Amino acid sequence: MADQDDILELIEDSDSTPEVSGARKWKIAVIDDDIAVHEGTRFALSDYSLNGQGLEILSAYSGAEGRELMRGNPDIAAVLLDVIMETDAAGLDLVEFIRNELRNETVRIILRTGQPGQAPERRVIVDYDINDYKAKTELTADKLFTSLTAALRSYQQLERMVQTRRGLEIIIDAASTLYDFKSMQRLAEGVLTQLASLLNVDCAGILVLRDSGEELAVLAGSGCYSRFIGTPGQSGSLDPDLRQMVEEAFRRRKHEFADHRTVLYIRTGSGREVVVLLQAERELSDTDRSLVEIFGSRLSIAFDNVILYRQLHEANTQLEERVAQRTRALTQANRRLSTQWLRLQRANAFKNEILGTVAHDLKNPLGVILGRTEMLTELISAEAPKDNVIAQVDHIRDATRRLTLMVDHLISDAMADAFDISIRREPVDIAALVGEVAEANRPMAQNKQQVISVSTPDACATMCDSDRMREAIDNLLSNAIKYSPIGGNIALQVDGDGDTTVIRVTDEGAGLSPEDLARLFGRFQRLSAKPTAGESSTGLGLSIVKKIVDMHGGHVTAASPGPGQGSTFTITLPAATVS
């Protein structure tokens, strides 16, 4: 047995363990039904210190109290436990409770007993997961110091292992979470959240990004730093001290751990730089720092993933826009092809109509010319009288004129149906133009003893194509001469009010029936009335007039009191350019 001087004296009148203000303390529990053991233990360990940390001693005087104490303080590092208390196995039952129900595997248990035979050492240590076994008679101050130190160091190592395992699990879980972020700001917020979880401590943090330029951007902030979110660092929005720390971290380009502040520097594969600054409530342990460094090494991939996702999203957007543009271009091209196909169909139909007209309307004047030419040949051979020869020549000339007129009409209609035809608008004096058309048609009217009267203002300017309008007015006037009786009157009248110009052609001819009015301006439409001097008609003139007037943005109408009462054709044009 050890000397009595080495035996731990149980002093009843002892003060509680003095506290070291501001330092973290090892928390140990003394569970024994002997009050003197509690007081002696406090006295012996009053000046105990390990790694700069003192002790916080908690007491329980029975197995039941020990259960409540252990349940309420899961951070107890070591337990000095008596075996026999309210029952012979109360201490061992408490060990089973700690290990099996609380599942606390890190707390170190030092079993102290005054009756070693009651709890054999070898069996108890093996069966009950006891870390140390001491008889109260051998537990001197030095032995207590040695046993407690060994227990606390063992606890510290286990805690580091548990923290490391927990931290690695968090890092593994965080990696899959952080790699799923598609937004740089959401990723930054996730980094701060995961760091706080990894350290298991409340902390204020800020994450600053520096892109290829020198501009700094605060992507996320927590705690007292949340007010800086989204602000450029160089604009003066950050506090001067904070900005200096961030800029110094970018210059230093490495991690820094100082007191309660942690600075992480991360450089991504794409050249971006990130600084994470954390202000924790406690100084980080070596284990915490190692875990933070491991966590930081994974962030480069996460930030590059976000950048690559953003680039891929932009590329997809551009590709979608290009596909949409190409689709629109193809749609427009298809529309143009469809329009051209319709125009080709119309052109082909028009060609067939022209061929039919040529075969039908040109056949008669050609027959007249051929027949009269043969007769003229016979008359010349028989030396017929001059008057007979002249009469045959007149017939040939008349047929030729009619043939020429029909060809002119066909050419005019073909020009009006040309798909690339354009109207050249310029100021035109319609009054003067109508006068010129009237003068050009007077010889034909005089041959039928008809009178053309013209009523126009001194000047009437209109924006139009003079050649096309001359053609339209000439068609109306030539029709009036053709269908008016010999000796009839034809009137040309021009009116204007500044907004519109109105041209009227009135005759005393056969007039128009309701059926004529219904189909008047269609192509190749023949009227019920016949020309009064045997003139020919292709049925194209009025359709050409309508086409020209429509292209000018105007309209043409016809009116007649009835058959035998003449008719009036009216052209209305806008005086200004039609947009």
From TrEMBL:
Gene Ontology terms, MF aspect: phosphorelay response regulator activity; phosphorelay sensor kinase activity; protein kinase activator activity
Domain of life where this protein originates: Bacteria
Keyword Cell cycle: no
Catalytic activity: ATP + protein L-histidine = ADP + protein N-phospho-L-histidine
Residues modified as 4-aspartylphosphate: D82
EC number(s) reported in the record: 2.7.13.3
Pfam families in alphabetical order: DUF3369, HATPase_c, HisKA
Residues in Response regulatory domain copies: 27-151
Top EC class, one word: transferase
Keyword annotations of the record: Kinase, Phosphoprotein, Transferase
Domain Histidine kinase, chain residue ranges per copy: 357-577
A single GO BP: osmosensory signaling via phosphorelay pathway
InterPro entries: BphY/WalK/GraS-like (IPR050351), CheY-like_superfamily (IPR011006), DUF3369 (IPR021800), HATPase_C_sf (IPR036890), HATPase_dom (IPR003594), His_kinase_dom (IPR005467), HisK_dim/P_dom (IPR003661), HisK_dim/P_sf (IPR036097)
PANTHER family with a match to the protein in the record: BACTERIOPHYTOCHROME, TWO-COMPONENT HISTIDINE KINASE
Protein name in UniProt: histidine kinase
Organism: Rhodopseudomonas pentothenatexigens
